[in-house]
Amino acid sequence: MLKFWIYAIFLILLAVIGLAIGSANDSQVTFDFLLLKTDVTVAFVLVVGIIFGVLLGFYISLLVCFKYWRQAHSAKAALNRYLKEQKKENQASAENVVAEAN
User: Fold this and answer.
1) Angle at 42 between CA 35 and CA 7, to 5 degrees
2) pTM of whole model > 0.85?
3) Which residues contact 39 (CB under 8 A, 6 or more apart)?
4) What's the number of CA atoms in the CB half-sphere (13 Å) around residue 95?
5) Which are the contacts of 29, defined by CB distance < 8 A and separation ≥ 6?
6) How far is residue 65 from each of residues 11, 75, 85, measured CA to CA in Å?
7) How confident is the model over 11-26, as pLDDT tens digits?
């Protein structure tokens, strides 16, 4: 767990340093959207890019987590069905043994 927090703090620190250095650049660039064209600073493009990347990363990680959760859930349901079938078979075989003994 400590390793996770060290990586998280390092990543946040790296992003903050990158944003601080990038925000010092006041040069203008022409950014062409689909409907409009505008002049923005390089710092704005940097911040929008980082925010978009973080949101996209969270979205993809949530999709992957949901996929694995669904697989685990279906495997657990299949295991429960199998255990119920085994229990019924064991009860049926026990009844047959008792019936044959009588």
Assistant:
1) 110
2) no
3) 28, 29, 30, 31
4) 6
5) 39, 40, 41, 42, 45
6) 21, 15, 30
7) 889 888 887 887 777 7
